[in-house]
Design a protein that fits this description.
- With 127 residues, the protein is mainly alpha-helical.
- The protein is built from 3 helices and no strands.
- The chain starts with a helix and ends with a helix.
């Protein structure tokens, strides 16, 4: 049984090889030249990609160094601006609160009409 299998394997391989050689659109030399050309293109593309990655890494390192130098100064400036704003805004906020309090008192006085005394003789005569 093993001999039959091996004979079938050899016959099938030979038949497949012959069939492939008869149906190939290029000759062996053309196929080898095309494979060599595609290998050269793949090699060139790989080298270009490697160079691009190296350049990207350098640019990323430069950006990181620049950010490390700029961010602390920017943060300090921003904190100073916030402190200055608070210093300028606090008196204004206190003044606005005082004005709101005064306005609330005026509104309260206007909303409550003066109470009339019911015990006055003028009031009892009118009713």
């Amino acid at each position: 049984m093993l001999k039959s299998f091996l004979k079938g394997l050899v016959v099938g391989s030979v038949a497949g090889g012959v069939g492939t050689l008869l149906t190939v659109p290029r000759s062996g030399n053309e196929t080898r030249a095309k494979l060599a050309q595609e290998l050269d293109v793949a090699t060139q593309t790989t080298l270009e990609l490697n160079n691009s990655l190296t350049n990207f890494k350098k640019a990323l390192q430069t950006t990181q160094q620049t950010a490390q130098a700029i961010i602390p100064a920017f943060t300090a400036g921003l904190e100073q601006d916030i402190t200055d704003f608070k210093f300028q805004a606090e008196p204004r906020i206190a003044q606005i609160k005082d004005q709101v309090k005064t306005l609330s008192e005026h509104v309260a006085v206007l909303a409550d009409p003066p109470l009339q005394n019911a015990d006055t003789p003028e009031h009892s005569k009118e009713n």
